[in-house]
Amino acid sequence: MKLFNKWSFAGVVVTDIGIKPYINIEPIVVPRTNGYYHNTPFYKTKVNIVERIMNRINVCGHKGKRHRQSSGHNTGKAKTSMNTVLAVLTKLEEKTKTNPIQVLVSAIENASPREEVITIERAGARYAQAVDIGPQRRVDLVIRYICQGASYKSFNKQKSIVAALVEEIMDCYEKGNASMAMSKRAEIEKMAASAK
Q: How deeply is 80 buried, as exposed, middle or buried, from its count of CB atoms within 10 A (0-12, 13-18, 19+)?
């Protein structure tokens, strides 16, 4: 079975053993399950990683409680996000001459943060405490940062969402610092290192 009848999942490998169970690379032709696993615990681990990117593109303009962007590619239409991801994977294959699914998985592995800071309150005073991030949250944060970075680079700009998303994923794949995901990882881990 090939994704969009173009790319095989056969040679795709997750090298980070911490997040390996949480990146689903089971073969699927059309990455659209329509929320089939939604009511089961840890349902996100059962959803293919390409579909998770598609679902995040639908609402990548939302940050916290603020709904910053709700037009263009943020419409929630499955066909729109599917066409976006198809174009992104095609351009990734043209640029790298390798399987674009492997490029996506490697980008997620490279940009996932390992530590973050939480606030602990003791005797009325608040302290920053560095903690390890759970593997499910690591994958969630990377997907969020990649899609939000692409959205911010393309909203009200001449650059399209496809070009911005390709740029974000390629920068994470090559371990550059221009992408939002890599810069957020560096920022989070720097704060955690100072809070130890």
A: middle
